[in-house]
């Protein structure tokens, strides 16, 4: 009885902990307050109010709801590892066993000190890879269910290395789709293959966007400028989509045909423009100049197909991998460039940020910002935001130009708001958000970006929030605890069943022994009576010795009969 009681007590002690831990793990967005930021409007006044009397009426649906019409769930740098990260598999197979007969002492010592530890390390790493996939999958699945995004993106470095062979690339790609982002899908090729600006959809009409994964190519996926080649780009395209493409998402028309105020230079419905850009080969030298030319041609096509810079009803969201340049100390990753040797082309081998020159193609080209205050829209450029990956620690900065010849600068977003740099009309600028990595050692993060149209301002607004699960050890600990509780319950139940069956058998044996004892006592008593009667018969008769033997036979017969009856 002691063993079942011990297991049952351990089960009762751990069960509440397991239940609480499991509730936390599967509802962690609730406990962390993770949600897409709610829209805030300049005024609760009628959405048709004009902007300083200088506005045109456009029939669009901009009801001041509590849920933003565009909600982007963003993940950074999952970096799926694979076979290349495993220890030496050949050593884990005990290759020295062949010499066991010739030198057993040496072989056994080597197995114990080298091969066995290597095998254990190999098994541990395999388990770690398996657990890491499901840890990342848990983050995606839980947040997707809890927050209900309209769009999802992974901001580069989906895989752990650009140098892996095609077979390993296919294996990791399969894990990405079938395990980590299960039930997710690539963006339709018809959208990605279209010319920039050609694909226009009504925001919210196509519900499949919530399951489409907008994949951004990273350096660990296709390489830096010095090692990107057409083969890597092609296999990336086949598995995850094109490296450069865009889509325009317009606000839906209002069925009631309500009119709201938009600037007079706006001729169409307010729209969001998603631009997915491969910025790995913006800097030089590049190994494949043809691929680099394609990237710059794409940027030029996006610029030429954009609305006028003065049109504030357009909001451009740039999704790319390498962050814009910034001074040391602004973010964890400071400025850094490294180049290949000359015999390998001398191209970019590694970089933390884009160069100033490459960044100008984005800030002054794609967004149309200008250092000249006399430029269109006073140099303010297009409204928008930049989302990047690469820096695993994450960062949130505001890039601005005071138009006084001092050039571009970057300040942490919180400081820019405190110093009113972000709200200064004398400065042009844009916010860049580097989403912290979703890898376990960085806390399992995800970015939540909400965007909505403010009819009072006549332009788009957005807010961003971060949500972190915690290190991967939390996921492991909860599931190990759940497994222990289940095993304790199973063992306690099994021990109770065995104990019950053993107890029944013991009781049966005791009952049988008791019955046998009673029978023996009755038989002995009857035999004693028979013996007494036999003596009396011998005394009263004339030497008939058969009476005694007859009495013994009768007692034996009664004993057998009694046992059979019992």
From TrEMBL:
Region ranges (Disordered): 504-566
Domain of life of the source: Eukaryota
Keyword flag Membrane: yes
Gene Ontology terms: cellular component: endoplasmic reticulum; membrane
SUPFAM superfamilies: Metallo-dependent phosphatases
Keywords: Membrane, Transmembrane, Transmembrane helix
UniProt GO BP: GPI anchor biosynthetic process
Protein name, per record: Calcineurin-like phosphoesterase domain-containing protein
Feature: compositional bias, Low complexity: 540-551
Residue ranges of the TM segments: 12-31, 474-498
Membrane is among the record's keywords: yes
Compositional bias segments (type: Basic residues): 557-566
Upper classification of the organism: Eukaryota, Fungi, Dikarya, Ascomycota, Pezizomycotina
